[in-house]
Amino acid sequence: MKLVPIEAKSKSYNVYIEARIRHKVGQLLEEIVTEAFSSIFVITDSVVAPLYLNDVVGSFQNKLPIYTEVIPSGESSKSFATYEQVMTKALECGLDRKSVIVALGGGVVGDLAGFVASTYMRGIRFVQVPTTLLAHDSSVGGKVAINHALGKNMVGSFHQPDAVFYDPETLYSLPEREWRSGFAEVIKHGFIRNQDFLQWLQGEVKSFDQLPVEQVINLLERSLAVKANIVAEDERESGVRAYLNFGHTLGHAIESELGYGAITHGEAVAIGMIFALKLSETMFEIDLHVKQHENWFQRLGYKTTIPNKLNVNKLIGKMQSDKKAEAGSIRMVLLQGMEKATMLEIPPSMIEQLIAEQMEVDDVG
Amino acid sequence: MKLVPIEAKSKSYNVYIEARIRHKVGQLLEEIVTEAFSSIFVITDSVVAPLYLNDVVGSFQNKLPIYTEVIPSGESSKSFATYEQVMTKALECGLDRKSVIVALGGGVVGDLAGFVASTYMRGIRFVQVPTTLLAHDSSVGGKVAINHALGKNMVGSFHQPDAVFYDPETLYSLPEREWRSGFAEVIKHGFIRNQDFLQWLQGEVKSFDQLPVEQVINLLERSLAVKANIVAEDERESGVRAYLNFGHTLGHAIESELGYGAITHGEAVAIGMIFALKLSETMFEIDLHVKQHENWFQRLGYKTTIPNKLNVNKLIGKMQSDKKAEAGSIRMVLLQGMEKATMLEIPPSMIEQLIAEQMEVDDVG
Ligand SMILES: NC(=O)c1ccc[n+]([C@@H]2O[C@H](COP(=O)([O-])OP(=O)(O)OC[C@H]3O[C@@H](n4cnc5c(N)ncnc54)[C@H](O)[C@@H]3O)[C@@H](O)[C@H]2O)c1
Ligand SMILES: NC(=O)c1ccc[n+]([C@@H]2O[C@H](COP(=O)([O-])OP(=O)(O)OC[C@H]3O[C@@H](n4cnc5c(N)ncnc54)[C@H](O)[C@@H]3O)[C@@H](O)[C@H]2O)c1
Questions:
Q1: How far is the CA of B171 from the centre of ligand 2 (A)?
Q2: Is A120 on the interface with B (CB under 8 A)?
Q3: Beta pairing partners, A7
Q4: CB-based contact A166:A221 (threshold 8 Å)
Q5: Which of A54, A209, A268, B306 has the most Cβ atoms closer than 10 angstroms to its Cβ?
Q6: Separation in Å, CA of B37 to nearest CA in chain A
Q7: Where do the 3-dehydroquinate synthase C-terminal domain residues begin and end (chains A, B) (predicted)?
Q8: Strand B40-45 and strand B66-71: pairing?
Q9: Which of A80, A98, A122 shows the shortest C-beta gap to B143?
Q10: What is the pLDDT of residue A34?
């Protein structure tokens, strides 16, 4: 079993990575937690439930009351309505302050279940059992949230899990586009903090088909280590944690303008990273070999141009209303060099021009 | 200006008590906060708005964007619906992470606005400007919450304010029953932590008419000091903070069974305190002079018997599902002597009998 320790200021816990660990969640939880728990509430989604819910529930061997809630698969479950509904279920099941919530699924389940855990009776414990590649990012660090029509993740809090149990086997049922979505965050970790890792990835991962499980474990471990590192330094995003938004300012704007679901988070972030790399080259007059990265991205099936049905001014408007923004400015994470992330305020005019240049060109045949 | 320091583990701040301080909120806030703020969002209710909103808004002297939201007066505003609505307004106003929320009102406004502050963009700063006596209790200590049909304060978190500005003048527009409601928590602080204070109260406060402002300030300061003391010891209610629930286990059950609004929180807590005193006498075979307390309570207009339209078993059921309860037991705060609070698990049969004895007797003329 691989183990990545997370040492956030408010709490320390581990990510446990092992094939088939989903069958041992109950047993491991019992070994790990310091204070006994009274009941278990597993929250998962409609796609994950038929695949892995029984395995996780079975791992508790009926030793104590266990309840389950299956929310619809997809981003739209990170809503006020689902939040209230899950709270109702939790109360109906009689969860108390010693109950533990298990978030079994991708980032949507993790973010929603985590927000429920952080606010149920003013906060109870929870653990993450991620089943997507993207969730290697979302399951660690304690950011939990739901969406609002006026913005993604606008309502939430910080609530660290007690443990993360990662079963790489579950990733093999993931559609290719979800691999692509999660892998963008892996790449991001390379860019901002670990150039060796990025090079290793570029050498080893040419497609998402048939990655051996050992390689997946390796990849998870190294990518998680970057996140762990950053969260340890800055749990509350007052400093370096903001670097994790590399690629996200434009990425979020694209996601939001296309309508959530039209493009995956990671696909949008990939476009945003290419944009941030180009902007970095211009701002700092350096060479980051964007073309080479772009080729690799394309080989992995990412689009690197901005869909041309999007309006430049609307994208800029969205970038200005980003959570990280203050009063209309556009702040972005750029690279002063590989592994050298920095936060900069960029004039909208400059952004406008670069967006125009990165717009997808219609194939006029 | 009187000042009560609150030293919670996660944060230190002060309660500032002064007549007319509502006119100085803007100025004081500027002096106090360490990090500049970008905009102000005042949340208040429909009864308080016409009385004091202008004073508070005026105190900011148009120095920066200021937005206001008026929620309906009353407990029903601590709902998911109002929570979502206030979030929407906050987003529409473009509040960012450097905005500050001002909660102007009683415990309802404080709890709701505090929960909004604790979850807007994963947490922004807020200050309390309490306008009820009860809010001397609710504005301090960082417990924030909304209600669920299945239980009061079931959804919430811990989020300490940056400051509390208490203007005793505002209490003079408060109806007598709201004085009575808040005063129960003042009495409670005496019972669990400060017998001298309780004796002083019994000597000085024979009715809620015409208490001079100096006496009100005195009373607030001493009562707040007890709360401050307990919060400093135990912010997260893992220990002594639970003693603040003295009178609340039965109190909550009565409130909930009568339907919220039929009786004030403090009126219900008063009945609960008499109950807890009687139970304490029985359990520890001591004399706590219940009759004498009961007389004083009645003189102040409190009922001390349990409304006989309530069903004993339903009350017990509610007491078992209290947030503090685990798996069906009834845990209550009792006194082993004055100022000697303790938490005890009580057999439901014992509670049943004592409730029956405290039931209101119909006047059969
Ligand atoms: N909290 C954080 O720090 C953080 C960081 C990044 C992203 N996020 C959030 O994460 C969310 C995206 O996460 P996601 O990409 O995991 O989305 P997701 O949870 O919606 O999962 C993607 C899809 O894959 C399905 N799925 C999940 N596991 C599967 C499996 N093993 N096999 C087959 N199908 C499976 C899901 O049902 C869903 O349809 C967004 O809401 C984003 O805001 C949070
Ligand atoms: N967070 C905590 O630690 C804590 C502690 C105790 C109680 N509470 C909560 O506090 C709430 C009760 O607080 P409350 O009793 O202040 O209720 P409240 O806020 O509803 O105020 C009571 C009534 O007085 C009105 N009012 C407020 N200020 C006034 C003024 N100056 N003049 C005239 N009218 C005024 C209000 O509009 C309301 O109708 C409950 O929801 C309870 O759960 C929280």
A1: 11
A2: yes
A3: A12
A4: no
A5: A268
A6: 10
A7: 182-325
A8: parallel
A9: A122
A10: 83
Residue with CA closest to ligand 2 atom 2: B138
Residue type, position A305, single letter: T
Pair B349, B322 in one domain = yes
Best of A155, A160, A231, A319 to disrupt the B interface (most B CBs within 10 Å) is A155
**Least distant ligand from the CA of A260:** 1
Neighbours of A124 (CB within 10 A): 22
Look at residues A151, A173, A195 and tell me which one is the last residue of a structural domain: A173
Q: Which atom of ligand 2 is nearest to the CA of B47?
A: 37
Domain that holds residue A185: 176-358
Same domain (yes/no): B128, B224? no
* Rounded Cα gap, residues B92 and B335, in angstroms: 50
Pairing of strands B100-105, B40-45: parallel
- From chain A, the residues in CB contact with B149 under 8 A are 88
Please tell me the pTM assigned to this model: 0.94
User: Is residue A120 scored above 90 in pLDDT?
Assistant: yes
CATH number at residue A90: 3.40.50.1970
* Residues A6 and A135 occupy one common structural domain: yes
DSSP state for residue A23 in the 8-state scheme: G
Name all residues whose Cβ lies below 6 A of ligand 2.
B 45, 47-48, 51, 73-75, 78, 105-109, 111, 131-132, 134-135, 137-138, 141, 143, 152-153, 170, 173-174, 178, 181, 265
- Judge: B96–A323 Cβ closer than 8 Å, yes or no: yes
Radius of gyration of chain A (CA): 20
Kindly state whether residue A364 falls inside one of the protein's structural domains: no
Q: Both B198 and B122 in a single domain?
A: no
Q: Got the DSSP string for B13-50?
A: EEEEE-TTGGGGHHHHHHHH-SS--S-EEEEEETTHII
Which tokens hold the place of A206?
Answer: 């040419």
User: Residue B62: is its pLDDT beyond 90?
Assistant: no
ipTM score: 0.92
Q: What residue of B is the nearest CA neighbor of A122?
A: B157
List Cβ neighbours of B111 (8 Å cut-off, separation of 6 or more): B78, B138, B143, B144, B145, B146, B153, B156
Using one digit for the tens of pLDDT, what is the confidence trace for A10-58? 999 999 999 999 999 999 999 998 889 999 999 999 999 999 999 999 9
Give the span between the Cα atoms of A90 and A67, in whole angstroms: 9
What is the Cα–Cα distance from A93 to A107, expressed in whole angstroms? 24
Q: Amino acid identity, residue B298? A: Q
Answer with the residue of higher pLDDT: A348 or A159.
Answer: A159
Distance from the alpha carbon of residue B134 to the mean position of ligand 2, in angstroms: 6
Identify which ligand lies nearest to the alpha carbon of B255: 2
pLDDT per residue over A328-347, tens digit each? 679 999 999 999 999 999 99
Q: Which residues of B touch A326 (CB under 8 A)?
A: 38, 96-98
Under an 8 A CB cutoff, do B91 and A148 touch?
A: yes
Distance from CA of B180 to the nearest CA of A (A): 27
* Same domain flag for A196 and A323: yes
Q: Is A322 helix (H, G, I), strand (E, B) or coil?
A: coil
Ligand approaching nearest to the C-alpha of A167 = 1
Distance CA(B229)–CA(B337), nearest Å, equals 19
Has residue B364 been placed in a domain? no
Residue A365 has pLDDT above 60, yes or no: no
Rounded Cα distance between A109 and A76, Å, is 11
Active site residues of B: 122, 143, 185, 227, 237, 241, 245, 248, 252, 265
Question: Could you tell me if A53 and A186 lie in one domain?
Answer: no
Instruction: Verify whether the Cβ–Cβ distance A92 to B150 is below 8 Å.
Output: yes
For residue A91, list chain B residues with Cβ-Cβ distance below 8 A.
Answer: 148, 150-151, 154
A354 in any annotated domain = yes
Residues A269 and A354 in one domain: yes
Environment class of A357 (CB within 10 Å of its CB; exposed 0-12, middle 13-18, buried 19+): exposed
Of B137, B156, B173, which closes a domain? B173
Per-residue pLDDT tens digits for B252-270: 999 989 987 789 999 999 9
